[in-house]
């Protein structure tokens, strides 16, 4: 009696020989299968990456010294599953934010990364933290006028450094 592993090994060898004999036919079969089963394949891929949350995020980082999945998991734990800017609870939709934006010369190393909620990362884009906080204050003061702060810059630096 054959074991399941033995049957899988025989099937893998057979398919490898078939692909080697006619690689274009194998590619055409793959394209056709994907076109006919797009939803099922997409669902499988989402499920696969969902189980590998930190690994999936780490694969998108580039350059020398980039953070690996263990470092990203450690950073999540260090932040206690909370957004580094708002303090809200994070879920699997969380984004990695670059403290110094890549557009401004930042890197993908762990010291330059933090977990944030998607809305913050999309709103912040490539601006630095001080400019982002000023922008947030402008939005709030537009909807809820209040007396201007005399020493806004020192308030930003003193209060925001506690979060970093």
Could you please describe the fold and organization of this structure?
With 164 residues, this protein is mostly helical. It has 3 domains: 4-49, no CATH class; 63-126, His-Me finger endonuclease fold (3-Layer(aba) Sandwich), CATH 3.40.1800; 127-164, no CATH class. It is built from 8 helices and 2 strands, in the order αααααββααα. The chain has a two-stranded antiparallel ribbon with strand order 1-2. It is elongated. The model has no long low-confidence stretch (mean pLDDT 88).
Question: Would you give the CATH topology of the largest domain?
Answer: His-Me finger endonuclease fold
Order of neighbouring strands in the sheet with most strands: 1-2
Q: Assign the CATH class of the largest domain.
A: Alpha Beta
Number of β-strand runs = 2
Mean pLDDT: 88
Cα-atom Rg, whole angstroms? 24 Å
User: Termini, distance in Å?
Assistant: 61 Å
